[in-house]
Write a structure and sequence with these properties.
754 residues; mainly alpha; Clc chloride channel; CBS-domain; 3 domains; three-stranded mixed sheet; 11 strands; elongated
Length: 754
């Protein structure tokens, strides 16, 4: 035994996987932060030793910016490719370009010399399927054939999408934002941001959007960008070995995702800050800004919309808004809040039904059924047949003299001689009334079908369908206000600002405000929503109407329930997510929540110098706890520190392989010096290096309000409860979440993961 105290602690050399986490476990933010600080300190001290070490330290400092550059380039490129592919495949359902089959309808007619201005959508190079197959473009037979092929293509695209997701990457379904939020709060879901998920999500997103289902590509693009972030993290040990640092990169990647989804770089940074991120230091803000900039620049270079603009729905309105119009804007906000509430409650009820009944066992059948119903009902109505982005773009547009849309079929005054831009309010023609009926039907259809579409086993975003619902409602309200102003311009509300022959009301603006209100009602975004909307449309002077609608929709929706759609899906899936915005107002104490409870077996602990390797292995085998407190002795219960289960398992396994004399009866000690043991005893095993000597502790009389706050702000995994230095129990993140659920009369067992 002589000299056992001077035994080399083999753990002085770090061994693989120590300090890592298992799947579906929560990370310890404090531990990750201190490990990064140690790493940084080591690099700084080494950099003074030689020129090579200095270069290495500079490379380490720059690695963050390099990762951001790579994320921006890849996510911008993928978004551009997705946009181009979606345009082509959406048009493929209706017809094909004869000169080059890879051209979309618009691109095909760009290159044509036979296009007239009035029939700019018609050119001999583009043929619908019926015309190509039978030679007849018009008539009942051609209509039925086009209808049949439209449904057939839609079913083929959605079947391919759901099959690829099921076979290759089950995590590629849904929007991905609830899971990204959970991962950023410190939860581990292995494979969720993997290479396969990235590849399959990109391909199936194109198929799903092209199938004509009521879903968007914006939410999934955040998931795609985060996959890119995770991919590049693995190139640098600074990020691959530290889960806390990795999450800083993922926050910035989320900003790049929104930047390319909407062409809104600043909105992307604010979205990451307001909606997705859990921990967002100032450094991450700058890096998010840079990643969003590079991503937007890359997308602009690809120019997928062919209009040399980043923005999806560029608008130019020629009249200002008036104070009296705030009333319909606020009413649209109320509609947005009510629609958000209805959608969340109905969608969560349907998703819960899918989880708990036989329905969930047939995801392919469900996708095919919903696609079939969508395609059958969408084709007869020109507003639901086209892609949702095109629909929103048309609803946002102002009616100029050159517009050929049905929505612009007004009765012109033959004596009118005015500049082209400033067209006065005119009475609506038959085309407008026809369009209003079709839009009303489209509104009902979109409201109902989106409830059943979101949450299916294919990539599905919610931004565009929500905006479509709001834009349709807004355009209908806008046309109603415009016609009232025209026919009753002597009413007191119109008298001050709407003279006869003036251009007073812009229905497109109402569509824009309605879109913002509905998106706000569903997601509960405010600041980032307004910034995304004006970046998306270029309508900078309409910030006040957008703000009024966004705030109203949030107030109305919050009156019925505080959770947005993403938080509701997090709750439904039982992810351990402690929302920073939730308030805990109950008067309970740490002693009410800690384990062990009164009738529970005593707390599983290790002693500092009297536990054998066999005892530790038995404890690990018999329990499933993530870690164990270390005490001086079982009698005194004085707390020394805390050791993680995974580290303990790896340490013993490595010791048995590398250190001679370690057997089952070897004593494990966590002290600085080895205990005094008889010479006949086997060699002891020193595991002090893996012991956390400063675990977070609270006393048994700490209010739970404080404990919840500590868990939120420090990102703890567990917290030990003591009284006068004696260990009483432990509170884990799961215990906190269960307690909060119990206090809100919810099922505490719905928190599924550790």
């Amino acid at each position: 035994m002589n000299g056992a105290g001077n035994l080399m602690d083999f753990l002085d050399e770090p061994f693989p996987d120590v300090g890592t986490y298992e799947d579906f476990h929560t990370i310890d933010w404090l531990r990750e932060k201190s490990r990064d600080t140690d790493r940084h300190r080591k690099i700084t001290s080494k950099s003074k030793e030689s020129f090579w070490e200095l270069i290495k330290s500079l490379l380490d400092a720059w690695s963050g910016w390099v990762v951001m550059l790579l994320i921006g380039l890849l996510s911008g490129t993928l978004a551009g490719v997705i946009d181009l592919a979606v345009d082509w495949m959406t048009d493929l359902k209706e017809g094909v370009c004869l000169t080059a089959f890879w051209y979309s309808h618009e691109q095909c007619c760009w290159t044509s010399n036979e296009t007239t201005f009035d029939d700019r959508d018609k050119c001999p190079q583009w043929q619908k399927w019926a015309e190509l197959m039978t030679g007849h473009a018009e008539g009942a037979g051609a209509y039925v054939l086009n209808y049949f092929l439209y449904v057939l293509w839609a079913l083929l695209f959605s079947f391919l999408a759901v099959s690829l997701v099921r076979v290759f990457a089950p995590y590629a379904c849904g929007s991905g934002i609830p899971e990204i939020k959970t991962i950023l709060s410190g939860f581990i879901i292995r494979g969720y941001l993997g290479k396969w998920t990235l590849l399959i999500k990109t391909v199936t997103l194109v198929l799903a959007v092209s199938s004509g289902l009521s879903l968007g590509k914006e939410g999934p693009l955040v998931h795609v960008a985060c996959c890119c972030g995770n991919l590049f993290c693995s190139l640098f040990s600074k990020y691959s070995k530290n889960e806390g640092k990795r999450r800083e990169v993922l926050s910035a990647a989320a900003a790049a995702g929104v930047s390319v989804a909407f062409g809104a770089p600043i909105g992307g940074v604010l979205f990451s800050l307001e909606e997705v991120s859990y921990y967002f230091p100032l450094k991450t803000l700058w890096r998010s800004f840079f990643a969003a900039l590079v991503a937007a620049f890359t997308l602009r270079a690809i120019n997928p919309f062919g209009n040399s603009r980043l923005v999806l729905f560029y608008v130019e309105y020629h009249t200002p808004w008036y104070m009296a119009e705030l009333v319909p804007f606020i009413l649209l906000g109320v509609f947005g809040g009510l629609w958000g509430t209805l959608f969340i409650k109905a969608n969560i009820a349907w998703c819960r039904r899918r989880k708990t009944t036989q329905l969930g066992k047939y995801p392919v059948l469900e996708v095919i059924a919903v696609t079939g119903i969508t395609a059958l009902l969408a084709f007869p109505n020109p507003y639901t047949r086209r892609s949702t982005s095109e629909l929103i773009s048309e609803l946002f547009n102002d009616c100029g003299a050159l517009e050929s849309s049905q929505l612009c079929d007004y009765i012109n005054n033959p004596n009118m001689s005015r500049p082209v831009d400033d067209i006065p309010d005119r009475p609506a023609g038959p085309g407008v009334y026809n369009a209003l009926w079709q839009l009303a039907l489209a509104l009902v259809f979109k409201i109902v079908i989106t409830i059943f579409t979101f949450g299916m086993k294919i990539p599905s975003g919610l931004f565009i369908p929500s905006m479509a619902v709001g834009a349709i409602a807004g355009r209908i309200v806008g046309i109603a206000v415009e016609q009232m102003a025209y026919h009753h311009h002597d009413w007191i509300i119109f008298k001050n600002w709407c003279r006869p022959g003036a251009d007073c009301v812009t229905p497109g603006l109402y569509a824009m405000v309605g879109a913002a209100a509905c998106l706000g009602g569903v997601t509960r975004m405010t600041v980032s929503l307004v910034v995304i909307m004006f970046e998306l449309t270029g309508g900078l002077e309409y910030i006040v109407p957008l703000m009024a609608a966004a705030v109203t929709s949030k107030w109305v929706a919050d009156a019925f329930g505080k959770e947005g759609i993403y938080e509701s899906h997090i709750q439904l899936n039982g992810y351990p997510y402690l929302d920073v915005r939730d308030e805990f107002t109950h008067r309970t104490l740490a002693t009410d929540v800690m384990r062990p409870r009164r009738n529970d077996p005593p707390l599983a602990v290790l002693t500092q110098d009297s536990t054998t390797v066999e005892d530790v292995e038995t404890l690990i085998k018999d329990t499933d706890y993530n870690g164990f407190p270390v005490v001086v002795s079982r009698e005194s219960e004085r707390l020394i520190g805390f050791v993680q289960r995974r580290d303990l398992t790896l340490a013993i396994k490595t010791a048995r392989q590398k250190q001679d004399g370690v057997v089952s009866s070897s004593v494990v000690y966590f002290t600085e010096d080895a205990p005094q043991l008889p010479a006949s005893n086997p060699q002891p095993l020193k595991l002090r290096r893996i012991l956390n000597l400063s675990p977070f502790t609270v006393t048994d009389h700490t209010p739970m309000e404080t404990v919840v706050d500590i868990f939120r702000k420090l990102g703890l995994r567990q917290c030990l409860v003591t009284r006068s230095g004696r260990l009483l129990g432990i509170i884990t993140k799961k215990d906190v979440l269960r307690h909060m659920a119990q206090m809100m009369n919810q099922d505490p067992e719905s928190i599924m993961f550790n």
